[in-house]
Amino acid sequence: MNKKKIALIPGDGIGQEVIKQGVKVLKTVESLDENIEFEFTDFPWGCEYYLETGKMMAEDGLDQLSSFDSIYLGAVGYPTVPDHISLWDLLLKIRKGFDQYVNLRPVKLLHPGLTPLKGKSREDIDFLVIRENSEGEYSGKGDWLFEGNPEEVVLQTGVFSRKGTERIIRYAFEEARRQKKKLTSISKANALNYSMVFWDQVFNEVATDYPEVETESYLVDAASMFFVREPERFEIVVTSNLFGDILTDLGAAITGGLGVATGANINPEKKYPSMFEPVHGSAPDIAGKGLANPLAAIWSVAQMMDFFGEKQWSDKIEKTLEDVLVHESELTPDMGGKSTTDGLGDFFCLKLKELK
């Protein structure tokens, strides 16, 4: 029996609703496969918890989570809690504390009707962005000098260590070699004359260990253009924390929006649990109305199953995503349908059972 312990952090707003649907999918997998068992534990952390306690998560939160096989996160954010608090005191605290230095964001068109790009097919938009997830521009280092004075200066320091830069680039080369795909590095060395020059240098050094992997390198502004005009250029992409954050939202835009965008925060060595999440926000304006689209949260379940070594279930969940998108009336209103969050979750599980 392959038993996995999953920590649930539904978080805020629609996070509660979409995680519920992902759990339905996991329970459906469990019912269809006698070799798989899941154990779920809920954690009430998030902005409501912060408003009650002054903390986004328990003081010993990382210790509580450390024994789990994975973390399933819904969404974090609420209008009365500053974004830097909700981000740094929960999401980034987990990412950094558990050394989840690999962020995986698939940019894949699941249905041709979802892309706003003229003349682009599913074959044209199908690549993986590997984002450095532990340092870089999101290191949290810097200073605020002479606050309130005419000489006021703020310093935001990007930290690019040899260890952090090389390990994410090497991870990307390994993935490109495994999939027999081209690897593209995205940087900005012409303007960022320390961090991105160093990034490019390390990329070129590591490339010598992988002569069989075809490579390309783009400046981030050119890459942004090509994401829209020629997404077929990309197969595997590796880039820094900030560039990856921005570019993958652009990737979401060309594949149907954040309602179908997923992300995995991976500790490849499995020394710590990895975390899986839809990448949309908490959307408090529609919370509790049954309007939230759960497909991104469900796609993150596919990523979780892949991480668990259950590739067959990862593939089946992704195939079901494609099947469900054909049934427009069963989708949520953001995708032109008339269903509810619960209704779409139930329909997804029904279609998943049909694949068995």
Automatic annotation (TrEMBL):
Its cofactor is Mn(2+); Mg(2+). Residues 5-348 form the Isopropylmalate dehydrogenase-like domain. InterPro entries: ICDH/IPMDH, IsoCit/isopropylmalate_DH_CS, IsoPropMal-DH-like_dom, TTC_DH. Belongs to the isocitrate and isopropylmalate dehydrogenases family. NCBIfam families: PRK03437.1, TTC. It comes from the Bacteria. This is D-malate dehydrogenase (decarboxylating). The keyword ATP-binding does not apply. Keywords: Manganese, Metal-binding, NAD, Oxidoreductase. It is an enzyme of class 1 (oxidoreductase). It holds the Pfam family Iso_dh. PANTHER family: D-MALATE DEHYDROGENASE [DECARBOXYLATING]. It catalyses: (R)-malate + NAD(+) = pyruvate + CO2 + NADH. GO terms for molecular function: D-malate dehydrogenase (decarboxylating) (NAD+) activity; magnesium ion binding; NAD binding. Its EC number is 1.1.1.83.
